[in-house]
Design brief:
This protein has 199 residues and is of the alpha/beta class. It is 36% helix and 15% strand. It has helices spanning 51-64, 75-81, 83-97, 131-152, 160-163, 169-178; strands at residues 12-18, 27-33, 67-73, 104-108, 120-123. It has a five-stranded mixed beta sheet with strand order 3-2-1-4-5, with helices on both faces. A hairpin with an 8-residue loop joins strand 1 (12-18) and strand 2 (27-33). Helix 1 packs across helix 4 (131-152). The longest helix has 22 residues, at 131-152. This is Ribonuclease HII. One of its GO terms (cellular component) is cytoplasm.
Length: 199
């Protein structure tokens, strides 16, 4: 079972992001504060879960956690401030949206920037160790997937319903055939060097 908390503070928030390596769509982060882990025994890192299980757990997290929030940072801003800064900004925005300000923050990964003066700790593979980070990873992933399903309707040729904007062969083939669209991250290498588009 994942650990409930890293610190002794009552209100510890876990935060994580999804979509960092995608060629299109936002990077999405979530922050979660959990007081009691008994109702969330099946929560795990979102990457370890099937889409169906993520959706089931998302509903449980939304109804049973003390507080949660999420935030999208979109393509234009990703291109302007870079993906690392956009990921951190999405996490900080999620924390800011929580109904209560956390006393301590645990962050999945190894990079973060101070938020207000709240102490924090970065934890490598934190989504496989702490419940609040795992719950945040599920919220971030499912909220981002919902958004990608939505914009898929506008540009079905890229099949975002399936690949969610990740650099699959099919996605790159569609970029080569149709060119990029307004949801693509133009600062990313959308195609391998030998298939470069003249943009």
């Amino acid at each position: 079972m994942l650990e409930l908390k890293k610190s002794d503070f009552s209100f510890e928030a876990g935060t994580d992001e999804a979509g960092r390596g995608c060629l299109a769509g936002p990077v999405t982060a979530a922050a979660v504060i959990i007081k009691d882990h008994t109702l969330l025994q099946n929560v795990n890192d979102s990457k370890q879960l099937s889409s169906k299980n993520r959706t089931i757990l998302k509903k449980i997290i939304e109804t049973e956690t003390t507080f949660y929030a999420f935030s999208h940072i979109f393509e234009k801003e990703i291109d302007e401030i870079n993906i690392l800064n956009a990921s951190i900004k999405a996490m900080q925005e999620s924390i800011a949206k929580l109904e209560i300000e956390p006393e301590f923050i645990i962050v999945d990964g190894n990079r973060f920037k101070p938020y207000k003066e709240i102490p924090y700790e970065c934890i490598i593979k934190g989504d496989a160790k702490y419940l609040s980070i795992a719950a945040a990873s599920i919220i971030a992933k499912t909220k981002r997937d919902e958004y990608m399903d939505l914009i898929h309707e506008e540009f079905p040729m890229y099949n975002w319903k399936q690949n969610k904007g990740y650099p699959t062969k099919e996605h790159r083939k569609a970029i080569l055939e149709y060119g990029p669209c307004k949801y693509h991250r133009m600062s990313f290498r959308l195609l391998p060097e030998q298939l470069k588009l003249d943009l």
